[in-house]
């Protein structure tokens, strides 16, 4: 057993609250992509899936007065990666995640995009950070439409449970000690 599963993370009220803004469908889809890409690249599948699931929990709402998403304002002023990294770290530690993993996941969220930075991250990311960026980009649609795709909560839990099982299988095969030793 891992210390914290994807289903544990998803069921927490903090995750549920903030994923409502950025989209449950996008989060679950990105987590699935991250697992596949991490597996291909020999990156930790648990950390990659968790970072991808939580990568957008720092989103604010950027609605105009008429209720439309103001994508230009968002592009210019958004810092969701910073807020998301902090929220994810707090959540992971509260749920009992290993501190080393919590940092890796949190920094991968911080650096999943360079849209808010004064420089580009191309070639500077760790393999884990790169996996999260690729998984996010794979589900991205013009004008942020990927944030609007719908997914029932029960469907999200079912998919994440399956993904948790796949991660357990990979860990068992690689013989990774996935229980905190303290
Ligand atoms: Fe995203």
UniProtKB/TrEMBL annotation:
SUPFAM superfamilies for the chain: HD-domain/PDEase-like
Start and end residues of each HD/PDEase domain: 19-150
Extent of the signal sequence: none
Top-rank taxon, per record: Bacteria
Record CDD domains: HDc
Protein name: Phosphohydrolase YueE
Species annotation: Pontibacillus salipaludis
Species classification: Bacteria, Bacillati, Bacillota, Bacilli, Bacillales
Name of the gene this protein is made from: yueE
